[in-house]
Automatic annotation (TrEMBL):
<feature type="domain" description="NAD(P)-binding">
    <location>
        <begin position="10"/>
        <end position="134"/>
    </location>
</feature>
<dbReference type="GO" id="GO:0004029">
    <property type="term" value="F:aldehyde dehydrogenase (NAD+) activity"/>
</dbReference>
<dbReference type="InterPro" id="IPR051783">
    <property type="entry name" value="NAD(P)-dependent_oxidoreduct"/>
</dbReference>
<dbReference type="InterPro" id="IPR016040">
    <property type="entry name" value="NAD(P)-bd_dom"/>
</dbReference>
<dbReference type="Pfam" id="PF13460">
    <property type="entry name" value="NAD_binding_10"/>
</dbReference>
<dbReference type="GO" id="GO:0005737">
    <property type="term" value="C:cytoplasm"/>
</dbReference>
<dbReference type="InterPro" id="IPR036291">
    <property type="entry name" value="NAD(P)-bd_dom_sf"/>
</dbReference>
<protein>
    <submittedName>
        <fullName>Membrane protein</fullName>
    </submittedName>
</protein>
Length: 318
């Protein structure tokens, strides 16, 4: 039997790396595209590391040659130059899928939605974002859907704010609540008590993707699924889990200093983008996962404390 092959863009990132590892564990051959793979200090030796750039179409097409799957989990770090990078990269991936016949797998975001779709987001909810980054994500998915008319297959799995092993500064968990590499002395929470928020544990998201990939024969050409993930109904559950995991029940929780972002925005693209996303913390927003349950029978879900403890350990905070 021929071994299935996946090409992964973003294998050094949080979700891309986890999907790649789970695919390798399930017997897939994984090709990982990286601009300077030889210089990586830590890399999974189960992957075939290829030198290449997601912004260079020929590199992406070559990496996908003979594959059945392209995991498109590459994003500009620190929110830098989304307008100039995000859409050219998905165009390259679509070209590679068209040439190889592979299915594209994309981690989706809530950025696609504006307040008119809140508070419950379904796969059919109207995508009318008010933000610049949200408009880019909508256009990205529009291009995938347009390509489906030509037979290019896609799978989008949409989840909440990522936390988990390998989560980086693009995550509210590691960029707001805690400081990677330092013991948890205090927390800065972006929302208010009483406002629900949806989180997504990276290994659960990756497992969901892989299990859907294994249902290829049942998936539509353009498939989209929402995850419920870790729903914090009143904004206290994540805080409580962190307190328990570091054994500090009286840990101070401060309001995130949103006021500083307008001051720093002229000097930092990341602060500008964070400021733009504040609306996602002002009211409870959650995804409805009935379509996913129908497809899989259940949604992978790691218990809160186990997921948070693993995340804190991976960030060297506990």
């Amino acid at each position: 039997m021929t071994q299935a092959i996946a090409s992964v863009l973003g294998a050094t990132g949080s979700i891309g790396g986890e999907v790649a590892r789970q695919l390798a564990t399930r017997g897939w051959k994984v090709r990982a595209l990286h601009r300077n793979a030889a210089a990586l200090k830590e890399r999974d030796d189960r992957f075939e590391w290829l030198k290449g750039d997601a912004m260079i179409r020929e590199d992406v097409i070559a990496a996908a040659d003979g594959t059945q799957l392209i995991v498109h989990a590459v994003n500009p770090p620190g929110y830098r130059n989304w307008a100039g990078l995000v859409l050219p990269m998905i165009d390259n991936t679509i070209a590679a899928a068209r040439a190889s016949g592979a299915r594209i797998v994309l981690p989706g975001t809530v950025y696609n939605y504006g307040p008119n779709a809140f508070p419950v987001l379904r796969e059919s909810s109207s995508q009318e974002p008010l933000t610049h980054k949200g408009a880019i994500r909508v256009e990205l998915e529009r291009r995938l859907q347009a390509a489906s008319s030509e037979g290019v297959r896609s799978l989008i799995v949409r989840a909440g704010d990522f936390f988990g092993p390998g989560s980086n500064g693009n995550s509210w968990f590691s960029g707001g609540l805690v400081k990677p590499g330092k013991p948890v002395r205090a927390m800065f929470y972006p929302g208010k008590v009483g406002i629900g928020h949806q989180w997504a544990y990276v290994p659960d998201v990756a497992q969901t993707m892989v299990r859907l990939i294994e249902q290829e024969h049942r998936l539509p050409v353009f498939a989209t699924y929402h995850m419920l993930g870790h729903w914090d109904a009143d904004g206290t559950r994540m805080i409580g889990a962190i307190k328990r995991c570091v054994d500090r029940p009286n840990l101070k929780v401060r309001a995130f200093p949103w006021w500083v972002l307008p001051v720093m925005s002229p000097f930092s693209e990341m602060f500008r983008e964070m400021r733009e996303m504040r609306y996602l913390w002002k009211e409870p927003i959650r995804m409805e996962n009935s379509s996913l349950l129908e497809a899989l029978g259940e949604e992978p879900h790691t218990p809160w404390d186990k997921a948070v403890r693993t995340t804190l350990t991976s960030l060297h905070c506990a």
